[in-house]
Amino acid sequence: TPEGLVRYDGYRARVYRHVPGDPHSIIDDYVRSLMPRPDGTLWVATQGGGVSIYDPATDRFTHHVADPEMPGALPAPATLYMVEAPDGRVHIGLGSNGIAVYDPQTGRFEH
């Protein structure tokens, strides 16, 4: 959806949108894919901002933004889908830019 992330708790809907200047808002309103993690966080793949990670305990987002010049960073901003492997690594589809693999042990991406 290009309208942000919608959370429904059974009673009401809340929309999370990117707020310029707020580092704890979702990084991009165009959500492509969602992936819940065992630690309770929700990973959000976005069209042009990279990956936002929602922590329901704090009601805030942190981010993996693309920086092709920095080793270990997300190599491209357009993230299309995500899947967690049995070993806990996260495979992220980057469209024509291939696949990046996030290693939670090191906090780095491989491309």
Summary tags:
single chain, 111 residues, mainly beta, 4-stranded antiparallel β-sheet, 10 strands, 41% strand
Structure notes:
This protein has 111 residues and is mainly beta. Helix content is 0%, strand content 41%. The strands form 3 sheets. It has a 4-stranded antiparallel β-sheet with strand order 3-4-5-6, with no helix packed on it. A hairpin with a 5-residue loop joins strand 7 (81-84) and strand 8. It is globular, with a radius of gyration of 14 Å. The mean pLDDT is 94.
Distance between the termini: 26 Å
What is the typical, i.e. mean, pLDDT? 94
What value does the Rg take, in angstroms?
14 Å
Main pleated-sheet profile: 4 strands, antiparallel
Strand portion, in percent? 35-45%
Count of discrete alpha- or pi-helical segments spanning 4 or more residues = 0
Q: Uncertain segments of ≥5 residues (pLDDT<50)?
A: none
User: What's the helix-strand series?
Assistant: EEEEEEEEEE
Task: Supply the helix-strand structural class.
Answer: mainly beta
Give the overall form.
Answer: globular
Short description, anyone?
By secondary structure, the chain is mainly β. It has strands at 5-8, 13-16, 31-36, 42-46, 51-55, 60-64, 81-84, 90-93, 99-103, 108-110.
